[in-house]
Amino acid sequence: MINYVAHWDRILIQSRSKIVNELNNYEFRSICPIVDDAELKKHYSESLNWQISREKYFDLSAVFRLRKILKSTDNGSVFHVFTLKTGFLFMISNLLLDKKFKSTLSVTGLGYFFSRNTSAKIFKILLRPVFLALINKTFQNIIYQNTSDEISFNNYSKFKNKSHLIESSGINTSDYFLKDEFNENIKIILAGRLLKDKGIDDYLKLSKNFNQQNVTFFLAGDLDMGNPNSLTQEQLEVIKEESSLNYLGYVDLQKELYNYDILFSLSDHEGFSRVLLEAMYVGLFVVAYDNNGTKYIDNFENSILLNSKTQNNLKDTINNFLTEEKFISNENRKQIEKSYSTKKVASQFANIYNKKE
């Protein structure tokens, strides 16, 4: 039995459930707060409800609840923990337990903890002794999605065990509705968690400043109140009232992304931007601000990396798209199927699970 642990059930439902389906010679148990029980049951042979508040950056009571789960788990069990936040909670919960687990951490991005935010810098300094003391005792493996995150976090935590680079969490390409032509009236979308460092303010300004009638702007995603960088409900209400931008809420990208023409990603940092991969496979034109988790799109057609988020730069990018000949890239689809499929990522996970310590 392999235990998948995350502080949000959606983390284990999206791409990870596809990986679970690929690795059908294993049994998997999900350990997460259960919101969508029916969806978890489709993929995991067992699910444990780890009650943790997503509205708190650090939920102390959740540490004790996870500790209770770990205490009842057999010695030598395999754990795969997703996100740095969950990894930290797992380390604390596992402290002084008289058990030895085979544990892997997936760092899907360094996020708020490694941001330029002043409070994040303080937390990073204060919590470093905890990482130095526990990271090597808790995790035998850490999976990174880009080499910059690997270098930064290993230097910070002094992690000395096995590091693995596995780009992306994979996509199951057969799940996506594909685009075959661009709309006459161009639809632009930014999709992701509604965090301040996702460039939402820049995108909102762009929607106000770009006044061509044949272009419409859309924003998709949910608040993440457990992240200090999340927009507030009040800020979201202001966005909803903005006439230049259409707020969609949560969108099933697999079934709906093909309706749009351009996808913007204006994040300051990413681990490995999954939505860019999805958009390129579906057939959208992709525009991304250059960071460690978006650089990879430079190897694809029908995409552009920006070294600046100035309004003039953003507007020029759209205007160039409007005047140039548009095409759907079949080469992008071939490359994604070859390099970033769920099947490939699942086989890399299996190699780690099967490795003898």
Describe this structure in words.
It is globular and about 65 Å long. It has 357 residues and is of the alpha/beta class. Strand 5, helix 6 (118-138) and strand 6 (141-144) form a beta-alpha-beta unit. It contains 14 helices and 13 strands. The strands form 2 sheets. Strands 3-2-1-4-5-6-7 form a 7-stranded parallel sheet, sandwiched between helices. Strands 10-9-8-11-12-13 form a 6-stranded parallel sheet, sandwiched between helices. The longest helix is centred in the middle third of the chain and has 21 residues, at 118-138.
Question: What distinguishing features does this structure have?
Answer:
17% strand, alpha/beta, 14 helices, 7-stranded parallel sheet, 357 residues, 6-stranded parallel sheet
Most strands sheet: 7 strands, parallel
Quickly give the structural class.
alpha/beta
Distance between the termini: 17 Å
Helix content: 25-40%
Indicate the radius of gyration in whole angstroms: 21 Å
Q: What does the overall shape look like? A: globular
How many β-strands, per DSSP?
Answer: 13
Fraction in beta strands:
15-25%
Overall residue-averaged pLDDT value: 93
Taken in chain order, the helices and strands follow as EHHEHEHEHEHEHEEHEHEHEHEEHHH
Q: What are the segments in which pLDDT stays under 50 over at least 5 consecutive residues?
A: none
Strand arrangement across the biggest beta sheet: 3-2-1-4-5-6-7
* Tally of contiguous helical segments: 14
